[in-house]
Design a protein that fits this description.
single chain, 162 residues, alpha/beta, Spore Coat Polysaccharide Biosynthesis Protein SpsA, Chain A, 2 domains, 4 strands, 16% strand, globular
């Protein structure tokens, strides 16, 4: 059974190395998306089964996340994998690889699509529109302030249909 791990990573490369180490096996390849705005991690050089995908900056709640996932899938699809597993660079397995292999060999595939929102996440993430392409953490930027004000104004008049 060949598995492709498709990982979106943007920080904490020490944790990313622990993730790769925990999941590493002879029948897996890690495809890791790293923004072109970031340095590639140099602490994963010991792994021969790591492929880096460079792409544009991924913004929270933006279309760029979907573009990064599509880029990972396009790259991995030519290798003939049996399974594709999406992860964030901050994820970590809570069970051993043997558990995953047993689940997959018995038809234990899982995909969850749930209408609405998850209780541990704010309903606003689903209910309202958000803009992509600006740094939400840089609250001193005129561009950020402008888009925050625009998002607040839009919330007064528009909601997504769920």
């Amino acid at each position: 059974m060949k598995i492709a791990y498709l990982i979106l990573a943007h920080n904490n490369y020490n944790h990313l190395k622990r993730l790769v180490s925990a999941l590493n096996d002879s029948n897996v390849v890690f495809f890791i998306h790293i923004d072109t705005t970031l340095k590639l991690p140099n602490n994963l050089n010991e792994f021969e089964n790591v492929v880096f995908i460079r792409g544009p900056k991924v913004s929270w709640a933006g279309w760029s996340s979907t573009e990064a996932i599509i880029s990972l899938l396009r790259t991995a699809k030519g290798y003939g994998f049996d399974y594709y597993i999406f992860l964030s660079g901050v994820d970590y397995p809570i069970r051993p690889n043997s558990f995953l292999y047993t689940q997959l060999s018995t038809g234990g595939e899982f995909m969850n699509i749930k209408k609405g929102y998850y209780g541990h996440k704010s309903e606003q993430r689903i209910k309202y529109y958000y803009f992509d392409g600006f740094d939400r953490r840089n609250t001193r930027s005129i561009k950020t302030v402008f888009f925050y004000l625009l998002e607040r104004t839009i919330k007064l008049f528009f909601q997504k249909r769920t």
